UniProtKB/TrEMBL annotation:
SUPFAM superfamilies: EF-Tu/eEF-1alpha/eIF2-gamma C-terminal domain (SSF50465), P-loop containing nucleoside triphosphate hydrolases (SSF52540), Translation proteins (SSF50447), Winged helix' DNA-binding domain (SSF46785). Residues 1-170 form the Tr-type G domain. This is Tr-type G domain-containing protein. One of its GO terms (biological process) is selenocysteine incorporation. The keyword tRNA processing does not apply. GO terms for cellular component: cytoplasm. It is found in: Cytoplasm. The keyword Protein biosynthesis applies. Transmembrane segments: none annotated. GO terms for molecular function: GTP binding; GTPase activity; RNA binding; translation elongation factor activity.
Amino acid sequence: MIFATAGHVDHGKTTLIQALTGKDTDQLAEEQRRGLTIDLGFAWLHDSEAGTLGFVDVPGHARFIRTMLAGLAGVDAALLVVAADAGPMPQTREHLALLELLGIHRGIVVMSAADRADAQQRADCHVAIKALLKNSPLADSPVIPVDSISGQGLAELLAAIRALSASTPARSTEGHPRFLIDRRFTVPGAGCVVTGTLLNGRLKLAPHTQLQLAPCDRTLRLRGIQVNGQAVTEIVSGQRAALNLTGELDSEHPQRGDWLLATELAQTAERQTSQRLDVHLRVLPEQRIHRGTLQILTGASAVSGRLVWLQAPAGQQAPGGHEKHGGLAQLLLDKPVHVIVGDAVIVREPATNTTLGGGRVLDPQGRQRGRSKPEALARLQALCTADTASAALAAELKHKLEIDLPCFARRWNLTAPEMDALQAQHALVRLGDQGLSHSRTASATATILQCVRLAHAGQPEQLGIHQQALLRAAESRLSPETQTRLISQLVASGHLRRHGVILALPDHQAVLPSKDAALYHRVREALANAGLRPPIVGELGERLGLERQDMLAVMHRLQSWGYVLAVAPNRFYLPEQLDDLAAVAQALCEESTDGGFSAADYRDRSDIGRNLTIKALEYLDRAGVTVYRDERRYMRPGWQRAAANKIT
């Protein structure tokens, strides 16, 4: 269990830890000369009853609040130190507020320097402490007078620490490992060493163990792990440790505030950082958040940013539109930081070096557009009470038609097996990266099939309905990619029949007028034999004995019924030939390094000529097969490959 000191400067925090552990945590010469804790100090106590106890000595001076917050990250409880001859001071109150804002609700109050106060002073200090703690999470914490020099009260304090340790639940070890760095130094013969806390998961030492450094996106190799000076092969969530690192190191990184993340997150490192955080924020009494530049602290990082209120509770909005007690807000940061749902944030006024408020992250990838819409606010309000990933997923399903499952897993730091278990628990249907409830999948499926059924009834001569027309008619409010995957699954399961981009019910039999039916069979044969370079309308008319205008009229009728596709004004393809055109594009995408291809690449592979290549590619864009971006084309998500997924 890890304890951190809190309290005003010169109230005896460092002396207290030395009395408990025998270690002086002021290791810097400047600290010892000034008698002032400047950087974080650490000490361990191996207790026969409580096991291994860690103590983090944090600065009490207002100038070192960021360092103090770095020490509080990941601790289980606090020792709030108040000098008996001085009583609560400004920094005592601020540290108490920070403990509450950071979610540290367990602790013990130490009335230090008991030898320097008489009985009346100690009694007055006790009353002041109780008044200070009233209505705070530490209101019921024991208050223990201690003289760290003589040892008076240390036995009672150790007994309270043991009791608190026994009643503190073990931390969950689920999720990918996230290690927060709070110090860096160089050890002769070892090189770069960082200390910090593993906030999530398990971190194992194995040959060639690699970690991703965020937010600067570098790959480092883990060479060793030590806990309290002893080499270990694994640490779990909540443990402090020293890590020996090698790799992409320089004078700037790693540094305090950086994160070491699991390699599973390396491919999406850019999504592991954010500059737009949706948060639930509580403003401290008698404070006011302005519209100017603020200091935002999360983990051990401090960045500049602005705050935009999204919603304030009814009846608690102060004049001028600033929420005084709590509400929904979005933090706009000047630099990206790594955060997940539930991480604490502190908002400070840099000019006066005061804490204004704090809260927790609801969504580390906040919306830029529509962030104040009623549906967006209702979702965030529901997430305020979701303290588990399962509860959050249930809330998301009530407010969103589809859930981006990889994005949800990143926000909550879930491993693949954990996300799979959550998906099964909520009985989600997975369509590509999107998850839908069974009821919404059934509703969207019924809508799609009904649209196809109506198309058949309205025009029985049609071969079917074009996929793009079906997407427009369905209006299921699902994304086009998700609807495309759902259609592909309906085809794979036999609920629909596909002719290229033309879709029909399995039992649909189109009825063409007799004259057109005879011509269609001859047109179909001519187009099928021509491959990817069909004859122009004039050439086709000559083969079938029709004038060009008559042939064009026939082709337009067949096009309106879905039997041919007008890729160019004078070039028509059979619907199933669209698959052949798409297959060329897909092969080029799979072979390229960036997953895309140019028009020249397509022309050379298909051998259909430059002009027809341009028309064919433009048609593939319109049909939803490819997307054009930066002079290259890419396959749209959900095309063809989605057919491999089955509805469950």
